[in-house]
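Morning - zinc ion inputs below, output right after.
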Amino acid sequence: MKKDKKNSLAFGMFKMKCPNCRKGDLFETKNPWILSKLDSMPPRCPVCNQSYFPEVGFYYGAMYISYMVSIAVEVPIFFLMLLFFGFQLVPMVVTLCTSLILFFPYIYRYSRVLWIYVTIPYGGIEK
Ligand SMILES: [Zn+2]
């Protein structure tokens, strides 16, 4: 039996698909740089009807994921700068702040994706 890559966990997370069916989109727009629609999610999956908001304040947990993802992004940048330029406070702060701003839409969305994938199992909800 051929394994369907479009239903894999990594593909579903990378493409921001529903954790239950991995077919419906989690966000209303695919482009995270449309900042007015950054957090716009449909209330339910259009394919399998899985709720994207299982409880009030569900995405508060994504803040902790966001912190961890931010650290995972910034620490390598810090050490690369340290390796190539040595410790210079102002360029380092400017680079780290700039990279955080540049990665913010992705960090925000992927934190939500990670959080909903941690809490909702694949194929866990029957139609
Ligand atoms: Zn779904």
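Note: The pocket of zinc ion is lined by residues 18, 20-21, 23-24, 45, 47-48, 50 (CB under 6 Å).

O.
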